[in-house]
Amino acid sequence: MEQIKELNKAKLADITKNGRVVLEFSADWCPDCRFLDPFMPEIEKDFADSKFYQIDRDGSVDIAKEMNIMGIPSFVVYQDGAEIGRLVNKDRKTKDEVESFLRSLD
Fold this sequence. Notes:
This protein has helices spanning 9-16, 31-36, 40-46, 61-66, 95-104, and strands spanning 2-4, 20-26, 50-56, 74-79, 82-87. With 106 residues, the chain is an alpha/beta fold. The chain has a five-stranded mixed β-sheet, with helices on one face. 35% of the residues lie in helices and 27% in strands.
């Protein structure tokens, strides 16, 4: 998973323009975000057709606000430049919840 410290509109457009892209908004200090860390490699393997990016919410506050990302960890999924789904709230997420969400987009 590629990590992005500062996401802006231009970078967002660039990384989401081709294929399926999963953005995980996260922060180093967030215990619920760190809870997911051990599962993310497995989730990425299970959804190998998607490109995953971990976005540092603190370094990307402006775009996070613009995208209405108020809680973390949160996931936003794009297909060929268009947003196709979001799992955005402040609740801790399990591997099963994330995978069920990603499966629901197919």
